[in-house]
Amino acid sequence: MSNVLTAASPAMALARRVRQFVDEQILPHETRLAAENDEAKALTRELTQLARASGVFGTFYPQEHNGRLASLVDYIQVAEQEGRSEYAPGILGADATLDAHMLKRHASPAVKERFLQPLVRGEAISSYAMSEPESIGSIPATMTCRAELRDGRWHVSGRKWFICRSQVANFATVVARTAEGSVTQSLSMIVVPTDTPGFEVVRPLSLLGRWQGQAELALHDVQVPQDHVLGLPGQGIALMQERLGLGRLLRSAHWLGQAQRCFELMCQRIHSPKGQLARLADKQLARARVYKVYRSIAAARGLLLDAAGKFDAGVSNSIEVNLAKLAASDAVSEAADSAIQIMGAEGLGEWTPLAGIYRGAKTTHILDGADDALISTIGRQLLAATAPGALFDPASPSLHIPKAAE
């Protein structure tokens, strides 16, 4: 499968429309959207309605739910344009893409009717509750949130934290322990409406001193129907892996959009009257920053398209996904830092989006898998795949990972 998008392809045409919408309708309002007050919420709803009317909402939803693209490779180019503003994925419905696919694949008919339909219409907000205060994020066996099935209802109790959109979500997909024994058979995903008695938002949680919609949750014997489990009870680990694989690629494409925006702001400053006065274009360090940022973005984009192509083909791609996530995280961090260096003190203020992107970029090295954990995992998998006597294809390394090293 080719990863190259031609200039005349439908995906490229849609990407141009999305970029135009983001640049014209969202970027001018970023300061107002950042306030997170009633005015910002009303503006978000207004822009979401405009996005639906403009045909740029939910572009990678399942096709039977008005999705416009069938392949992840096609969507990567569109997602990059969605990521130009940190507020655009929410306004354009992209934040719900992963939940839309998970519900479409694994939810019961009743759950699809109650939650999936409003979600893809932009009338509901979803969240995913996995991380816990007392557990180790990279070790699912340490999770303590529990769900017990009694009289046809799940009774869910536990605590979760750093849960995206949980303060405004209509429902949360909660990872809970539903049985004893092996972690591969004891965890499940259960869809919990946030207005259910016992569902509590304990407190908002900032990331590096900045509010980004994260919160801590407590579930006090929250009761939901038996059919609110995704897939079958005990399939939680398999569903978590499925979710992480697609989710990391979706988030990475948005981070790449922020990196590209930083690159453009950096180059604009170099070409500006101030930049000409300082002769920035003649300075070797400025040229080196332009080169390094562009190289990081191009490398991350290539890794993303490679992982996405294997996703579309149904080929094992765990190494490729993690490489792409790490590369996209590095790209947005380097781009934001370099743009601020070129901009000077002005880049630290509220006149540009760089300060917000810079802090957000630092969180990408922890969110969706900490760098150290992913690097260790990739190293272990590559060593297992290249062990003496193993057949190893560097173009498709994930195909050669022994089961024990997955």
UniProtKB/TrEMBL annotation:
What protein family is recorded?
Belongs to the acyl-CoA dehydrogenase family.
Listed under subunit, the entry gives:
Homodimer.
Domain of life according to the entry = Bacteria
Q: Which Pfam families match?
A: Acyl-CoA_dh_1 (PF00441), Acyl-CoA_dh_M (PF02770), Acyl-CoA_dh_N (PF02771)
**Annotated ranges, domain Acyl-CoA oxidase/dehydrogenase middle:** 128-211
Its source organism is Ectopseudomonas hydrolytica
The keyword Mitochondrion appears for this protein? no
Protein's recorded name? Acyl-CoA dehydrogenase family protein
